[in-house]
Amino acid sequence: MVARATAEYCRSIGDDVVALSRADLDIADLASARAAANGYRPDAIINCAAYTNVDGAETESEESFSANVTGPKNLALAALEFGCGFVTISTDYVFDGAFDGFYTQRHQPSPQGVYATTKRRGEIEALTSNARTIVVRSGWIYGRGGTNFLSVMGDLLREGKQVKAIEDSYGTPTFAGDLARRLRELAELDLPGIFHVTNSGEGTSYFGFAEKVCELGGFDPALLQAVSHADLSRPAPRPVSSKLACLYSERFGLAPMPEWQDGLRRFLATNS
Questions:
Q1: Which residue intervals of the chain are DSSP H helices?
Q2: Among 194, 230, 238, residue whose Cα is nearest residue 93
Q3: Are 246 and 196 in contact, with CB atoms under 8 Å apart?
Q4: Angstrom distances, CA of residue 174 to CA of 104, 151, 209
Q5: Looking at residues 157-182, what average pLDDT do you find?
Q6: How far apart are CA 143 and CA 225, in angstroms?
Q7: φ, ψ for residue 45 (rounded to 5)?
Q8: Please, which of 24, 32, 190, 253 could form a disulfide with 20 given CB 3.0 to 4.6 Å?
Q9: Does 116 map to a domain?
């Protein structure tokens, strides 16, 4: 989802984009990563690959480690060897969710569960393997072609289906199209470190997001059912609140990200 949005945006501004699938490149294989970097000689590599099945990672830890740790490390090493910039995507789940406010780069990561732990380890491996690395933490990402809850909620409501949404878990929704634009900006900025990238605003709960989908899409709010995160029996732990804010994006001349409600409006308008 994010890779498609990023490739589409970069092409729209005239970039020559090479978008590789898993069949084209196994990022867990260093030789393959080096061969791809050597063959294409890009100005920048943007890593949108990841193992994102939070619950599945609890039993598929090797797959999660390969995609989320070994992969970013290999791409970072390949970028270092061939002198190109490197941007890799991480997650709000590197935090434990015990903090009520917005997590910034000043907060100490405390990942819970296999998925979160591998994403944090991937950050460290990439940053230590290549000092030019840019890590982008984001969260609650939705967009065209997405299969996660936030992405398909509008389709479910359009079909008149009941939707259960958690009312006591909070985050900062992020439209993949807006994230893609910022990934490209950061690649060009070429300032290494960790950036938090989400749409602006006070954040919301899953239920609040669902209510806004109903409002903007003209769907029946009676289809919504509020539930607690404690009511759901899920294998992996998740942060109860994982809202993100960046300490220095605007200090580096980057414009504020659009409000999350605006991103949702644009998504629904193009995904109806």
A1: 2-12, 30-40, 61-65, 71-82, 113-129, 149-158, 176-189, 206-217, 260-270
A2: 238
A3: yes
A4: 16, 11, 11
A5: 95
A6: 23
A7: -110, 125
A8: 24
A9: yes
Residue 88 located in a structural domain: yes
Chain position carrying tokens 């943007």: 46
> pTM of the full predicted structure?
0.95
Other C-beta atoms within 10 Å of 34: how many? Answer: 17
Give strand pairing partners of 91. Answer: 138
Catalytic residue among 51, 115, 170, 206: 115
Q: Is the pLDDT of residue 10 over 80?
A: yes
Average pLDDT over residues 1-13: 97
Task: Report angle CA 192, 193, 197 to the nearest 5 degrees.
Answer: 110
Instruction: Give the per-residue pLDDT at 85.
Output: 96
What pairs with residue 259 in β-bridges? Answer: 200
Flag whether 252 is in a domain: yes
Count of domains forming the chain: 1
What residue has token string 């589409």?
Answer: 8
The CATH number of whichever domain residue 16 belongs to comes to 3.40.50.720
30 within 8 A of 77, measured Cβ to Cβ: yes
**H-helix or E-strand containing 231?**
none
Q: Which two tokens stand for residue 85?
A: 């910039």
Q: Looking at the DSSP assignment, which residues form a beta bridge with residue 88?
A: 47, 135
Structural domain that includes position 71? 2-146+172-203+238-259
**Catalytic-residue membership of 115:** yes
In a domain? residue 107:
yes
**CA–CA distance from 229 to each of 94, 106, 239, 270 (Å)?**
18, 27, 10, 30
Amino acid identity, position 21 = S
Nearest alpha carbon to residue 145 among 158, 155, 159: 155
